[in-house]
Amino acid sequence: MSAMAFVSITPLGDGESVSCYVSRAVKVIKESGLEWQLTPMGTIIEGDRLEDVLAVINKASEILEECNRLSISIKIDYRRDRAGGLDKKVKSVLEKL
Q: Which of 50, 78, 90, 96 is the most exposed place for a label (fewest CB within 10 A)?
């Protein structure tokens, strides 16, 4: 099994630059032990179990407790028939170019 989530956690109403908040959320993801990849628009997290991925997303949002309002976007690819995919998906597309 493999669960991959694209997540974007953004505080609302805290000014134009939110990188100081985003970096704190990404630190939680980094320290989780799960595979992850930062992109300009969000972070991809991959784990064996959907529960593990969702728990990390929850913890990353809770670390921003001083923010009264968060916008959280999540897109999940949950595969029960195979493991791993973070690098495989990109490699598959690049091979077809």
A: 96
Q: How far is CA 35 from the centre of its chain?
A: 10
How far, rounded to the nearest angstrom, does the alpha carbon of residue 80 sit from its chain's CA centroid? Answer: 19
Cα–Cα distance list, 2 to 12, 49, 53, 72 (Å): 31, 6, 10, 22
Query: Model confidence over 87-97: pLDDT tens digits?
Result: 888 888 899 99
Over residues 11-25, the pLDDT tens digits come to: 998 677 899 999 999
CATH classification code of 2-95: 3.30.70.930
Closest by Cα among 1, 2, 7 to 56: 7
Backbone dihedral angles phi then psi of residue 48, each to the nearest 5 degrees: -70, -30
Is the pTM above the cut of 0.85? yes
| Closest by CA position to 43, among listed 55, 24, 26 | 26
- The strand pairing partners of 27, in sequence order, are none
